[in-house]
Amino acid sequence: MEVVTGGDAAPVLIPQGNGLASVLTAEENCLLPLVARGLPAKQARARVRRALADVGLEESAGHLIEELSGGQQQRVAVARALATEPVVLLADEPTSELDHTNRERVLALLRGVAERGGTVVMATHDPEAALAADDALHLDAGQVVSAADH
User: Fold this and answer.
1) Which of 17, 82, 88, 139 satisfies CB 3.0 to 4.6 Å to 51 for a cystine?
2) Is residue 1 in a domain?
3) Arithmetic mean of pLDDT, 65-91
4) Which part of the chain is the ABC transporter domain (predicted)?
5) With bands split at pLDDT 50, 70 and 90, how would you rate the model's confidence at 5?
6) CATH number for the domain including 78?
7) CA distance 56 to 70
8) 16-61: per-residue pLDDT in tens?
9) pLDDT for 100-123, tens place per residue?
C-alpha cells in the first residue's frame, strides 16, 4: 500500500458540483491551485492554456464561470484538475453534464492521466464511463456488490 501525504502527490478532486468560483474566469479558476502551489506564472499559464484546449474551451478562458453552460463549467473543473498534473485524481461524476463528444474527450483525458502513471478514481452512474475504467466496483447502499476487470 502506498501512502499519499501531500505536496505534488496530494490527491486532486473534480467535484460533482464543479467547485468553481463564479466571480473568476475559467482561466483564473484553473490558475488558482497552481499559484497556490507556487508554480511560476509563465509555467502556470502554459499549463492552463493547454488544459483548457484539451477540454475544448481555449476560446472560453476569459469568460466568467456564470457565463458558461453546465457542461462547459464541468469541463473547466476537469481542466483545472488536469493543469495540476495530478498523481492521484478523484473524479466525482466527471461526465454527468456532458454530451457524447465531450464525455469521450474527458474520458480520454482521464485515461491519459492513468497512462502516465497516475491513479484515477471515478465515481459515476454512467455505464459507458464505467466501462472506460480498467477496474470497476459496483456499490449498492455503500456496499460492494460486484467487481469487474475491464
Assistant:
1) 82
2) no
3) 98
4) 13-96
5) low
6) 3.40.50.300
7) 14
8) 999 999 999 999 999 999 999 999 999 999 999 999 999 999 999 9
9) 999 999 999 999 999 999 999 999
C-alpha cell of residue 10: 496530494
Chain position carrying cell 454512467: 126
Q: Which residue has the cell 495530478?
A: 86
Domain that holds residue 17: 7-149
Q: What Å distances lie between residue 2 and 12, 63, 88, 119, 147, CA to CA?
A: 16, 40, 11, 12, 21
71 in helix, strand or coil?
Answer: helix
List the one residue out of 92, 86, 59 whose CA is nearest residue 74.
92
Residue 111: count other Cβ atoms within 10 Å of its Cβ.
14
Return all residues near 131 (Cβ < 8 A) that are at least 6 apart.
Answer: 150
